[in-house]
Write a structure and sequence with these properties.
alpha/beta, 10 helices, 8 strands, elongated, binds NADP nicotinamide-adenine-dinucleotide phosphate
């Protein structure tokens, strides 16, 4: 918790956390930590955005070096990891400091920032925020964090304050980004895109709102169960089913593709799903569960 913020620009201040990058997300991180009782100093390339946080109790700092050197934990939330590397370039000594880049990066950028930090005597955690700024500071907020387990334990209270559902994704520094690729990037984006396809079709045909909402709720409940089943099946390597086979899903996808196209609507997302299912059928997996398509989704599959 707070070590007690003292003074502002230019003084030898001591804060719990320095936030580097005060855009929409960085500002939410800084405000949330202050609300939770942490002392927070903030630096932003465009100083006015850091200054705007003063009313919320965040201490704006014009000098990057001063902000960096005044807190044991530096949360970097610039647009890209490259921005953070550029911004931190003047820092030669990071001993006693943990840097956590929590913007959107990649496993490679996580490794680069970790190497950069360790070369300067500091420690590095890599984070991925899987929430909107308005979810920061709520039980639903999530920061996925990868890196040394002891380092995670030391800073865990800060991450749990930023998002009550935050968790440690393992010691491999690339893990937070790999999980984000699999689930935020691939699953959520594709799911929302296919929902947009279906919702556009339903709205365009003037289908009743009540029916759309009922089907949406039912679909989300079904996803919750079926996604867990897919993960379990893939982990067990077991794809037998007495419920619904790849052949049944492929048939449904082909019919939906045809109807959407006949009415002149986009069917690109369902076509992509059908392509995977057709590949599974061609591989002789027709009578197995939806999860069996994992066999044709691997490298070389
Ligand atoms: N907003 C969300 O819902 C959300 C959700 C999850 C993750 N994220 C991630 O959080 C990160 C920040 O997003 P945001 O929504 O806060 O974006 P934003 O509002 O556009 O803010 C971007 C931040 O990056 C800084 N920046 C950009 N280019 C820079 C450069 N060349 N050198 C130094 N600083 C630079 C900006 O500084 P200036 O003010 O000087 O331009 C600002 O602080 C991104 O990686 C984003 O993917 C955002």
């Amino acid at each position: 918790m707070s070590t007690g913020a003292r003074g502002g620009s230019g003084e030898s201040s001591s804060y719990d956390v320095a936030v580097v990058g005060c855009g929409l997300m960085g500002a939410a991180l800084a405000r949330t930590l202050v609300k939770a009782g942490y002392s927070v100093v903030a630096w932003n390339r465009t100083h006015s955005r850091a200054e705007a946080l003063a009313a919320d109790g965040v201490v704006p700092e014009r000098s990057l070096e001063a902000a960096f050197n005044s807190a044991p934990l530096v949360l970097a939330c610039t647009l890209t990891p490259e921005n953070t590397q550029e911004v931190l370039a003047p820092i030669n000594d990071a001993s006693g400091t943990t840097i956590a880049f929590v913007g959107s990066g990649s496993p490679e950028s996580a490794r680069e920032l970790a190497q950069w930090t360790v070369a300067r005597g500091g420690d590095y955690l890599d984070g991925v925020i899987v929430s909107y700024p308005e979810d920061i500071g709520t039980p639903q907020g999530v920061v996925v964090v990868a890196g040394d387990a002891a380092l995670w334990s030391r800073h865990e209270p800060v991450f749990l304050e930023l998002g009550g559902s935050s968790f440690h994704a393992g010691e491999d520094i690339g893990n937070a980004n790999l999980l984000a690729t699999a689930f935020s990037g691939a699953f959520i984006v594709a799911s929302l895109a296919s929902y947009a396809e279906g919702a556009t079709f339903a709205h365009g045909l003037g289908l009743p709102l009540d029916g759309i909402q009922r089907m949406t709720r039912q679909g989300i409940a079904l996803l919750a169960t079926r996604c867990e089943e897919i993960t379990d099946n893939i982990h067990r390597g077991h794809h037998a089913t007495d419920q619904a086979t790849i052949a049944t899903f492929a048939d449904g996808a082909r019919k939906s593709m045809g109807v959407l196209a006949a009415y002149g609507y986009s069917n690109r997302l369902v076509a992509a799903a059908q392509e995977n299912l057709a590949a599974a059928e061609a591989a002789g997996l027709s009578e197995l569960a939806f999860s069996a398509q994992t066999e044709v989704l691997r490298p070389g599959g």
